[in-house]
Design brief:
Blueprint lengths: L11 E7 L4 H11 L7 E7 L4 E7 L2 H4 L2 H6 L4 E7 L14 E5 L2 E11 L2 H10 L11 H9 L5 H9 L4 E8 L4 E5 L8 E5 L4 E4 L3 H5 L2 E6 L5 E5 L2 E5 L9 E2 L1 H6 L5 E2 L2 E2 H15 L6 E4 L5 H11 L7 E3 L17 H6 E3 L1 H4 L3 E6 L6 H12 L4 E6 L21 H4 L2 H8 L3 E4 L2 H6 L9 E2 L1 H4 L6 E2 L5 E2 L1 H8 L1
Parallel strand pairs: 14-23, 17-20, 20-21, 21-22
Antiparallel strand pairs: 1-4, 1-10, 2-3, 2-4, 5-6, 6-7, 7-8, 8-12, 9-10, 9-11, 12-13, 15-16, 18-19, 24-25
Helix pairs in contact: 5-6, 9-10
């Protein structure tokens, strides 16, 4: 049996380091600290200045990279990748970083994000004779580079990225270069740091800097390309400027609370979301409990603002694999019970406020609520520290389709009835944005809450079409 999650799936993590004798080891540690962003496969590519050395496999970082495997990854520069599939199935051939050979020499690429026009480009390239080795969108970038008439790798990369649209935070490694680049909208995070030994480090989140003893320097800016080689580091801006569209869901759910992304503390923003929720959606209650672990900080903010005590009323098991054996004698709500258990002493006879960060299908939420009700809760009030999720994401997060999203097809009153709670309330869109007021990084993408997608694409007839229209038709 496969345990189905009612949460959006993590995207990917990327990590890169230049000028370190322990490049492979540090990349392993960085990927290990960002395991929450992808658990399907992991890979590392290193270079000694002449060759690229690659190892990737399915599974978790700690299980893939044994010490003998790490020793085979030679060199003082490396890039690494943790993957959760958003485009392309979960197979070993789709594990990143990708490594290819072309007239430009050996090139490896690690990608976090999703390209919205990758299938159009792929079809065109295949008609021209290109043979793809994977089903992931990232491979179109290296094919475009290989077909470029530019003889300079940086020029070929810029020419290729000018043809793709959507979300990409990229790390590119060659025997000469380590290149970090972020799409002009800046959908996905990418940070830069420096170690005391002079090594330059890139990562999806700053939590990877803590474990590798790296000092945060700054974010890679939207539309920026940072190139590092033996002569030093330089910054380029080869793309037209675009309106920043930073993924606000990173703050709500994905990033670790101890990370800084988009130049702000995830912990601070998440706590602010909880405080805002308590102000606009108060309720009289005896105890506040979060759905662990991603809602813990929002629940703490709600508790501090409301004065209602915070308790750990749900205990989550952290040792659930992707598959498990269900007993012959069927247990009701087995999937929810194996992941969560209720602390009866916390909820029995109490008016309980449950804080969660999102509700997708609602199936797991309903089961959790039933467990808490059976444990003796007198009232149950459900509060969500984000607006209703009404649309899928096409920029690197695996959110269910429109027909699967409960808030896309049902009113709040209908959802409340389905969940069987005494009250239900979401954070409003305006209030959510108040939690990040004063953010110096610019605007945010909130398409999963509004269906207002920042990047459009063309359909096969050449007509401009929103992503909502195209993908709603396909699904």
């Amino acid at each position: 049996m496969i345990l189905q999650s009612d949460k959006p799936k993590e995207e990917c993590a990327i990590f890169g380091i230049y000028n370190s004798k322990e490049a492979a080891n540090f990349t392993y540690l960085g990927l290990y600290s960002m395991q929450h962003r992808g658990q399907e496969s992991s890979g590392i590519v290193t270079t000694d200045g002449s060759h690229l050395y690659r190892y990737a496999n399915m599974g978790l970082v700690a299980n893939i990279f044994t010490q003998p495997k790490i020793k085979e990854l030679i060199g003082d520069a490396a890039i690494g990748h943790n993957r959760y599939s958003t485009t392309g199935a979960s197979f070993l051939r789709n594990a990143q970083p990708i490594r290819v050979e072309s007239h430009l020499g050996p090139v490896a690429l690690a990608h976090n994000g999703n390209l919205v026009n990758s299938w159009d480009i792929r079809n065109r390239l295949e008609r021209d004779g290109s043979i793809f080795q994977t089903t992931i969108d990232s491979e179109v970038i290296v094919h475009l580079m290989a077909k470029s008439h530019k003889t300079d790798l940086l020029e070929a990369l810029c020419e290729s990225l000018a043809q793709v649209r959507g979300a990409y935070s990229l790390l590119v490694l060659t025997p000469r270069y380590l290149i970090a680049v972020r799409d002009p909208n800046g959908f996905r995070p990418l940070v830069m740091g420096k170690r005391s030994d002079g090594a330059i480090v890139f990562a999806s989140e700053t939590c990877a800097f803590d474990i590798t003893e790296t000092e945060y320097v700054r974010d890679v800016e939207p539309g920026e390309m940072i190139v590092i080689d033996h002569t030093g580091m330089r910054s380029l801006y080869p793309f037209p400027k675009a309106k920043p569209s930073l993924c606000i869901f990173e703050y709500i759910y994905f990033a670790r609370p101890d990370s800084y992304i988009f130049e702000e503390s995830v912990y601070k923003v998440r706590k602010s979301l909880g405080r805002q929720l308590a102000r606009v959606m108060p309720v009289e209650a005896d105890v506040i409990i979060p759905v662990p672990d991603s809602a813990n900080i929002a629940a703490l903010g709600y508790s501090e603002e409301s004065g209602i005590p915070y308790q750990s009323g749900l205990v989550r098991s952290h040792y659930i694999g992707r598959t498990f054996i269900e007993p012959d004698q069927k247990i009701r709500d087995f999937g929810a019970k194996i992941k969560y258990n209720v602390v009866k002493e916390v909820v029995n006879g109490k008016r309980v406020v449950i804080i969660d960060d999102s509700v997708m299908r609602g199936t797991t939420s309903r089961k959790i609520i039933k467990m808490i009700r059976n444990a003796g809760a007198k009232e149950i009030h459900f509060r969500v520290s984000a607006p209703p999720t009404v649309s899928p994401c096409y920029y690197g997060i695996d959110i269910p389709t429109h027909k699967e999203l409960i808030a896309s097809t049902h009113s709040i009153e209908e959802i409340q009835k389905y969940l069987r709670v005494d009250s239900l309330a979401y954070l409003t869109l305006d209030t959510m944005h108040k939690a990040v007021e004063g953010h110096k990084g610019g605007g945010f993408c909130d398409a999963c809450f509004t269906s207002n997608y920042p990047v459009e694409f063309q359909d096969h007839a050449g007509n401009q079409k929103s992503l909502f229209t195209e993908y709603a038709t396909e699904e």
